[in-house]
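# nightly structure sweep
# worker-07 picked up a monomer target from the shared queue
# config: single-sequence mode, recycle default, output format = structure tokens
# input follows
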Amino acid sequence: MSDEETSRYVRLRVELVVEVQDDDEVTRAALRRLAADPELPEAERDQAEGAVTEDTAEALAYLVDPFDLVSAVPGVELQQASWSSERIDYDPDSPEWDLDGDDEEDEEEDAVG
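# output follows
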């Protein structure tokens, strides 16, 4: 396939599991970032402050910015991003958390299809 036939767009999927060791520290950091955002309308700020105060996962989602993940990569410009966070039960020894398992499943589907 020539360069002209190849799309310039790449979907990058990243899944992270983090351990929150201090809920209050995460919440305070999110509130500081909200307070420092001069472009955020007051009504949206109030709503966001309520969300990050009530749920640490929301606070973490507010602090993690996909632009920050790719902004230093040369030759790349972020076109679109979406992300979410949720509290989960995590057992690193469980086969459910085998990150390589998705690749094997995709390879099996490719072989069959």
